[in-house]
Amino acid sequence: MDLTALRAALADVAGRARVPGMSLAVVSRDRVLYSGGTGYADVSALTPATADTAYPWFSMTKPVTATAAHRLSDQGRLDLHAPVHEYLPWLRAPGPAQPTVWQLLSHSAGLGNPLPVRWIHPADTPGPDQERMLRQLMARRRPFRYRVGGTGHYSNVGYLVAAQIISQVSGEPFTSYVQREILIPLGMDSTGFSYPPGRQAATGYVRLPRPLAPALAQILPPGTLGPRHGDYSSLNPFLVDGAGYGGLVGTVLDAAGFARLHLNDGLVTASGTSAFGTTVSGAAGGAGGSRILQESTARAMRQIHVRGKGFDHSAGWFRKHSHGPHGSYVEHFGTGLGFWNIMRLYPERGRAVVLMSNSSTSYDYATLFSLVLRMPWT
Which pTM does this prediction carry? Predict the structure, then answer.
């Protein structure tokens, strides 16, 4: 089929937002429909952005964390409706109401969301101990800022707690559990909690006036800010401190492979065929026929139960109050310093779209997704 219009639309979205590079993957339940990129993963080296370019996922990690928790629940090892202190005795909310694990995952546990400006470290240095980081955050004044079980309030801290519970229950580091139980079965060999070796990684960019660059350098951890390129300040490779709320780094194809898992209600499907007639393996396929989540569990994860400000929440996914013209969807953004990503599922239409970019600037993804849904995929 002719994909000229889609390629042109991708380039137009990036150009209008002045984003250096973008990578896009579109999948159905059984195959990759499109994968490609536009612009540059690295402006200085003129390295093109492709479907094999690795990006920090930031909060697109949260659906993976929620999937890990639900897998433990399906195995009878974790009670999602048990209070958090049953797993972490030292972590309690003030008052009689205590948050549950599910409330952590649906942002209804009452926890605040401190601005994570310096919650990163250079990619070639070890990150902080996850439990120590969590204990320090919980020792701050008023970590619980909202009513437990009330309106949804987005919280990175809640997912740091969830990751610690997953580690406690599984008896191993959170990152090891996710790698073995989710990433490897899905064939996501270009994604992990560090930059994947042998893959071109996107350089992050922040567009700001040159006189403001020294001020940004003072705010960020030492060595984060790189050279200037026109209107952009580049960023040296870094990792997010909290693995559970935003630590993954990888390709748009791997992210699309994870999205396919949820389109297929927790089932890892066999390798498919791309729109170009080539066999797609790895993240697009994985080990055919194995199940990571029970069908009812995967479907329940997409049920929006918690009303929030701007977004309504489920366990691992969210959705704007307005569904838009193309039916129901669930999604998650992954935005942070130098990068802006989105993963969206249209379960009723059997489609998922993942878009990743290397600038802090948002862009008109809705127009692009609308085109994707209108295309007569064969």
Answer: 0.94
